[in-house]
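Researcher: Sequence of SIMPL domain-containing protein follows. Predict its structure.
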Amino acid sequence: MTNSMNKKVLALVLAASLPMLAAAQAPIVQTVQKDPEGVVSLSSSATVQVPNDWITVQFSTSKEGVDANAVQAALKDALATALAQSRQVAKPDGHVEVQGGGFSLQPRFNNKGVVNGWSGTTSLTVQGRDMGTIAELAGRIQSMTVGNLDYSVSREAREKVEGDVAAQAIARFRAKAADYAKAFGFATFVVREANVGIDNGQPTPRPFRAKIAMAANVGDALPVEAGSGTVTANVNGSVQLK
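Model: Prediction complete. C-alpha cells:
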C-alpha cells in the first residue's frame, strides 16, 4: 500500500473517531424536575354507627385418653352430634350458616419423653343473621361448649352505608383543602391525587365468658346482646393550591 493511500485511510479513521471522542468528552447535564409549589398533603375520615346484625358462635370440645383411636372416636362423635343439631336449623341466604372447624390429635409425653396418652380438639362454627335461632341452638348443643362469641356488621349492611360514609369523608377532604387554600392565601385548589379506603371495623373474636354460660340452664337460649359496629371511610391525597 502506498504512502498516499495510507494517509487517506488514516484520515478517514480520524474523521469517524472525532464525533465519538467529542461525545465522550462533552459534559453530562442532568435536569432535575422540581416539585410544583403549593402542593399540600392531607387526609380525612368519616365514621357511621351500624347495628350489628351478624352473630358468630364457635363451639369446641377437647378429649384425652391413653388410646388414640378412642380419643379420635370421642371427638368425631361430639362433632357429629353438634353438626346434626346445627343442620336441623340451617337456613339459606346467610340466615344460619354451619361450618365444621379444625380437628387435631396430639400425643402426650411423660418426663422421660415416652408417649403416655393422647389429647385432641375439634370445633364447629355457626353464624348468620338469625340471632334468635342461633342463640337457641347454642343452648341445646351439649356435646360441645361455646368457645368464642362475636357480633359484627354483615357484608350487606356494610355495603348499604359505604357509599354514604365515603361521600362524607370526601366532603371533609375537600372542606379541609378549601380551608388550607384560604389560609395559605390561595383562591382555590385542584385535587392532584386521592385514595379512598373503607375500614369495616370488624372486631377480633373474643372468648365467651364462662360465667354467662354457667348462669344459663341446660336448654336455655344463649343471652344475646348485639350492640353496634362501625364503618369508616378514609381519604388520603394531595391538592394543588391555586
